[in-house]
Write a structure and sequence with these properties.
By secondary structure, the chain is an alpha/beta fold. It is built from 9 helices and 15 strands. The chain is globular.
Amino acid sequence: MRQVEVHGPDDLRIVDRPSRALDAGEVRIKVAAIGVNYLDIQERTGVYPREFPYVPGGEGSGIITELAGDVDGLRVGQRVCWQGVRCSYAEAVVAPVWKVLPVPDEVSDQEAAAILLQGLTAQYLATTSYAIQPGDVVVIHAGAGGLGLLLTQVAKLRGARVITTVSSTAKAVLSLEAGADLTVPYDELTTVAAGNAAVVYDSVGQATFEDSLTCLKKRGTLVLLGQSSGPVPPFDLSRLGRLGSLTITRPTLSDFVSTPAELHDRASAVFNWLATGRLRLRIGATYPLTQTAEAHAALEARSTTGKVLLIP
């Protein structure tokens, strides 16, 4: 099978490798679509270091082609998706059965690959990291990205007033279409939101951190969920008291889907929103697996909107 291997920060290769034998509790899946996430770039560039060479990727969709002898509840030929399974940039993936989710009939293969990581993230951010309440002012950075568009919609489902930051007029249009009440350039955020937000969702990090704090009202919550502009510098926690008893949290999806029950409950909510039209998914671009480098370059340059997919 063909797969992508990372041999260095700027060295992505398409190689042919045999697919390994299944262990107990595993399934083999012929891949239909692969989700591309900023984490994939951060691992490749050393923000979150991995040992070279490795196969990137952690989510996708496809069709089961083989089951280990002890696997129940799934069948060969079934459409499934997964998240949190390494080595997903490939034509075939071996996954632990508990991380494999059946794809509802109403959801396409590409939608399943595009929705899972960012949909689950939007769900736990809005319900658990900070439980959005009706009337809350919510600030979402990078409002036209794949996560930003989904999180905006979930926040609106929970009755929030949503303000997003965007970097262009075209991205502002997309954010407004997703339900944002107001979109602003990054450098204008504090003029409209200072001291008003119950929660700020910040995936940008270093460049937006101080403005995010400025936007929070007393006892507000800053949810740091990424660092596309670089890591936040060392921070004196005593400032949180002086700024109004603020809270900062740095969640990671894996801690919110760490059991089969929690994964299936959160995924069921996301798929229900999607199937009933309450959540609209934007797939901004698809690339063949052989153009993985181009897909990464587009995402890294922030020239994409919505979700980026690879197609084997």
